[in-house]
Specification:
By secondary structure, this protein is of the alpha/beta class. It is about 30% helix and about 25% strand. The protein binds flavin-adenine dinucleotide and nicotinamide-adenine-dinucleotide. It holds the Pfam family Pyr_redox_2.
């Protein structure tokens, strides 16, 4: 069968789903093709299930901090029950997403897409043509090419683990390792994180990351820096991890957390003359690929912005406006807040301390130890640190990095101040409810 559409969306994840429904609602004839779960990574095997599990970390650390201060003991995590709770969020996602697309007027196909030429794709036995395409196929976990690599589990497996074993090891000290290490530790596992150099979470302020590692070590997580694992060997029900020196670690499960690879390998992009590099599909500032009828968005893009859900959503809504003729402007990204949901949490937005450090004539950095501030002291948090970056010339706030259990709330407040260029003076006109994280803001900027 041959069918023709105005727009075909390849990949029904975060970005694809929202662009498909909005374009169909605007009267375009739209098809969306997905080869796995509708809704994609974030609600099925990413942000949302992860954040459900983070509740266990929060419950335990909040209670642990207050032992001897009115709380008798920290709750134990029942992993199978927590997983069952997680499934109440994830199980319905795919079917509900597909249903909502159909209700919006989108034709949905379940298939792995491949381009046949510049304006048609193969979808199972059908050939679909379109005036325009949007590729939003996301990314998948990368697996280190080492001996025994077949033993690696991925983040997808962790988020569906039926039982938490005694020891788990993460190879690669990035977002996923720091978040999952806190979760597995709260669930009672002995956790190891192995990083091949001295800079885990390298996009973040390394002073804060050292402190985060210390906090996790105090809870029982072990970090191994400068270790390059070259072999995973199965030994009865366990795995032995070794490098080319004397490193040797036995673990029940080993997870590969060394980053994600854009999903482009099955698309036959060459047939449609779409250029890409190892970071993903290359586009111009209008998210248009080297084939002018094809656009791309989300994690599959080769870009310098972080590969995150709100960024994918922003790109989807930009492309909806562009393809509906509502804008002719290129996409301008705001300052994007990022968070590591570890224990404590670390977050940043705007100019980072290391960028500011390299340009001391332009920026001032203030480090604030807020550990004994009421907001954090009342919870007996072990650490609360904030770095504020201001531009010398204007005095404007241009960056913030924070580490405490409320960093997810705090960073969004900083994001508003930075993106809307709100000054400390203007902030003093606003009354915040007290005592809250927001009511600390003016003291942080003082
Ligand atoms: C463990 C984990 C935790 C995360 N936590 C956070 C977080 O806390 N906050 C945050 O902002 N971001 C987080 N992320 C990142 C976030 O999930 C992604 O940035 C987001 O899902 C990207 O959306 P997307 O639409 O580009 O891709 P996806 O949501 O991955 O969707 C792509 C879709 O395309 C489909 N597809 C792939 N190839 C083909 C093909 N050839 N044909 C048809 N369909 C195809 C896939 O099956 C998938 O459904 C996390 C990611 C992971 C893995
Ligand atoms: N909170 C969030 O927003 C969130 C959470 C999880 C995932 N994500 C997204 O998913 C992506 C992937 O996460 P990730 O943690 O897999 O990747 P990552 O890019 O955050 O970290 C990978 C880490 O592995 C290290 N590494 C690389 N090769 C190695 C090797 N041979 N041995 C040991 N370490 C090695 C890197 O130096 C890096 O520290 C993130 O970049 C982000 O886009 C976001």
């Amino acid at each position: 069968m041959k069918k023709k559409y105005d727009i075909i969306i390849v990949g029904g994840g975060v970005a694809g789903k929202s662009a498909a429904s909005e374009l169909a609602a605007s009267g375009k004839k739209v098809a969306a093709v997905e080869n796995d779960l509708w809704g994609g990574t974030c609600p099925n095997r990413g942000c949302d299930p992860k954040k459900v599990l983070v509740a266990a970390v929060e419950a335990r650390s909040n209670a642990n901090q207050l032992i001897g201060k009115g709380i008798e003991s920290a709750p134990d995590v029942n992993w199978p029950d927590l997983m069952a709770f997680k499934k109440t969020f994830t199980d319905p996602v795919s079917e509900q997403t597909k249903k909502s697309l159909i209700e919006a007027g989108v034709d949905t196909y379940s298939a792995t897409v491949e381009f046949i030429n510049e304006n048609s794709i193969r979808v199972n036995d059908d050939i679909l043509e379109a005036d325009q395409f949007i590729i939003s196929t996301g990314a998948h976990p990368s697996i280190l090419d080492i001996e025994g690599k077949e033993h690696f589990l991925t983040s997808d497996d962790f988020l569906s683990l039926p039982e938490m074993p005694e020891t788990v090891t993460f190879i690669g000290g990035g977002y996923i390792a720091f978040e999952f290490a806190a979760i597995a530790n709260a669930a009672g596992a002995k956790v190891h994180v192995i990083q091949h150099n001295k800079k885990p979470l390298k996009a973040y302020d390394q002073e804060f990351i050292k402190e985060l590692m210390k906090q996790l070590e105090d809870k029982g997580v072990t970090f191994h820096l400068d270790i390059n694992i070259t072999n995973i060997q199965k030994s009865s029900n366990q795995f032995i991890l070794t490098d080319e020196d004397n490193f040797n670690l036995t673990t029940d499960l080993v997870f590969g957390t060394t980053g994600r690879i854009p999903n482009i390998e099955n698309l036959k992009l060459e047939n449609a003359k779409i250029e890409y590099d190892k970071k993903g599909i290359k586009t111009n500032k209008f998210l248009q690929t080297s084939n002018s009828a094809v656009y791309a968005m989300g994690d599959v893009l080769s870009k310098s912005q972080p590969k995150l859900t709100p960024v994918a959503s922003l790109e989807a809504s930009y492309l909806v406006s562009l393809l509906r003729g509502k804008t002719e402007e290129s996409l301008i990204y705001p300052e994007i807040p990022t968070i590591v949901f570890s224990s404590p949490k670390v977050a940043q937005v705007g100019v980072t301390p290391s960028q500011a450090d390299k340009d001391k004539d332009k920026y001032d950095i203030a480090t604030i130890d807020a550990t004994d501030w009421f907001s954090y002291a009342r919870l007996n948090e072990p650490v609360s640190l904030v770095k504020i970056i201001t531009e010398k010339k204007s005095g404007n706030l241009v960056g913030a990095t924070c580490m405490n259990n409320e960093a997810d709330v705090l960073i969004n407040l900083f994001s508003i101040l930075i993106n809307k260029k709100i000054t400390a003076n203007e902030l003093s006109d606003i009354v915040f409810a007290y005592p809250t994280i927001a009511s600390d803001l003016s003291s942080l900027l003082a």
